[in-house]
Amino acid sequence: MSGHLGRFLGVLLAGAALALSLRVAADDYRLRPQQIAPDVYAVIGATEDFDTRNGGNIVNSAFIVGSDGVVVIDSGPSLRYGQQLRQAIARVTDKPVALVINTHHHPDHFLGNQAFADVAIGALAETRTAIGTEGNAFAENLYRMSGSWMKGTEVLAPNRTLSAGALAVAGRRLRLLAFDGHTGADLAIFDEASGVLFAGDLVFNQRAPTTPHADIAHWLQSLTALEKITGERGFRVLLPGHGQPASDAAPIRQTRAWLEWLAARMNEAARAGLETNEVLALPLPPQFANMPMAVEEYRRSVGHLFPAAENAALGAAQ
């Protein structure tokens, strides 16, 4: 009897250990920084939507190792992500984090701020305001979409206002580039030493852009400017907000092509008097049909953008 009991307890303990190991594995974002230039590292997220499998790890974060410290660009979608990003940085360098930069106010880019509560967190003034007013609603939505990965996550707004121009920090010289279009305030960062351009969500690479706060006309203007402001030699590496790094402007051109098509689709459908359901049923063009998240983001963008196109068409007809 005791032998049977011992084996039974052994099975229970083994099962508990397995469950614990699976839980630990499930809570691990498995962040693996990849070096994209000397002393510059990126953590590349999946080209997916938020869900309980990826825990919101669909975003690109990055960090620059300077002579005096580390600059982090975007802190990720949760407290847990931010903590694991900080651990990943510590595996690369023992230098302290000097500054965290939030490129804009979408939740996958700033909800990891809590893990950096002891350092300066900077953003454009409009981004700071937007995080303060919309951050809690964003966090609640990610709790619904990503589940337990979000445990303990609370909004920590940036505590430093950044503006366009040169910024010397951690022994690096950065050029801060203030735009809008994807949101009301979009910050791109150019690291002069490495030639890396951190484009934030102004640029997507092989992933359909998101548009919940988009002004397409402004966004297109920003993309045009983005290609022109990186100096005579241009950037060496482009890191988009979502998708793989690139060595040329192809992701900028692809993002522009999607936005131009999307705006034309909305305007043409509105002028034709189509109903929303009819617009949703229209097929994607071949060039975008197989792009990750194209169907999903197109459907969302119809909801975001088509009412304004209808109003514009109605006003033009009167």
Determine the N-to-C terminus distance. Answer: 90 Å
Strand content: 15-25%
* Count of domains: 1
Helix/strand class: alpha/beta
CATH homologous group name: Ribonuclease Z/Hydroxyacylglutathione hydrolase-like
Oligomer: single chain
CATH class: Alpha Beta
Largest beta sheet: strand ordering? 1-2-3-4-5-6-7
Can you count the helices?
Answer: 8
Report on the structure:
- The chain has helices spanning 2-26, 79-92, 125-146, 216-228, 250-271, 276-281, 286-289, 294-317; strands at residues 34-37, 40-43, 61-65, 70-73, 97-101, 120-124, 160-162, 165-169, 172-179, 186-191, 196-204, 237-242.
- With 318 residues, the chain is of the alpha/beta class.
- It has one domain (21-249): 4-Layer Sandwich (Metallo-beta-lactamase, Chain A), CATH 3.60.15.10.
- The strands form two sheets. A seven-stranded mixed beta sheet has the order 1-2-3-4-5-6-7. Strands 8-9-10-11-12 form a five-stranded mixed beta sheet.
- Helix 4 (216-228) links the parallel strand 11 (196-204) and strand 12.
- The model is unreliable at 8-24 (pLDDT under 50).
How are the SSEs ordered, and which strands pair?
Blueprint: H1 2-26, E1 34-37, E2 40-43, E3 61-65, E4 70-73, H2 79-92, E5 97-101, E6 120-124, H3 125-146, E7 160-162, E8 165-169, E9 172-179, E10 186-191, E11 196-204, H4 216-228, E12 237-242, H5 250-271, H6 276-281, H7 286-289, H8 294-317
Parallel strand pairs: 4-5, 5-6, 6-7, 11-12
Antiparallel strand pairs: 1-2, 2-3, 3-4, 8-9, 9-10, 10-11
